[in-house]
Amino acid sequence: MKILIIGTYPPRKCGIATFTHDLFNSIMDNSNEVDVIAITDGSEHSFPPEVKRTIRRNEKIDYLESADWANNQRYDCCIIQHEFGIFGGEAGEFILDFMLRVNFQIISNLHTILQNPNPQEFRVIQKLSILSDKITVMTQRGIEMMETVYHVNPNRLTLIPHGVPNFKLSKAEAKSILGLEDKKVMLSFGLLGRSKGYEIAIEATSKIRSDNFVYIILGATHPNVLKEEGDTYKNSLMQQAGNLNLSGKVFFVNHFVNDETLQQYLKACDIYVTPYPNESQMSSGTLSFALGAGAAVISTPYWYAKDLLAEGRGVLFDFNDASGLANCINELIEKPSLMESYQKRAESFGKSMSWINVGKLHLSLISSILNPKAKIQSIINQDKTMKFLDPGKSKNLISS
To answer: Which CATH class for the 171-352 domain?
Structure first.
């Protein structure tokens, strides 16, 4: 099969770029030809050879010209990584111009699903759904929201989980590499921004009774945040840790780390925490990675976490509840058998989400839809003229 993937891509430093790269590797084999079109914001100096073309985010003509180019390449299928913010136009609508113009199968992989979209976000998702042969989401909750909020036919929806790496190190080996042999390690990983809630985890660290407990925050400030406010958020976290006398307890690894280093930290951690303050977080690659690494995961009950940590795969604490988080951490440290039970369940479930398995799911889905496609005029006309429902009537149709 000849497959095209569209999304941000390394050296771009963002979660979707990492996801797109991992997806490329998972479906690339001797029987498939896989290429990438990278959405660029101008921050990337060069791309690897699999990137055959780039689209400047805010240049509408690039989307149209790339569609014409892609048609000439005779691809069988295109997988679009969808996140509102990575495409140009209002609510990322420019990607729709690409979709309208191509003559091959399209799978749209949704990284964000809003329960309360504004009118333009609602219209973009409905149009994208019409123009996609299949829509993939990462949780069952995502399936339900696409049906109830956006009125998408369930036959067009497929659940494919977020992939996780194949970890090769043991916990002991990873701790030895990082010099953490005698520590109980809690980790958070991801690009820094005010939506991460790390200040809650730092406050909780001040309430931990164990002398050999450390909390590591791994990741640099998000490039978009860096442009707008610099390292203000990171500096505020460092100041907070200093005010709480947590020197030697809280460590900042201020880098966008490569895969090898990330795997070392993930395997070395005993506990992984996502203290996000926003309930509507629909996916989290970092949380998926932590499960795959076999960490005991503690999280606030945002949507993705509630789905992923069900059936005893992790521990939930309330939003903005530093004391509740501290109680969870203290219990796990002081009850090693409890910690180990969470770690084993996490690792077992994480294997089902390995990129090897996720790649197979994507290839199977592509194979199932590879019938000759004709974008007949009636479908295009339907897209242009359909009367969209008022998104306000669709809000709050499901419980959180």
So the answer is: alpha beta
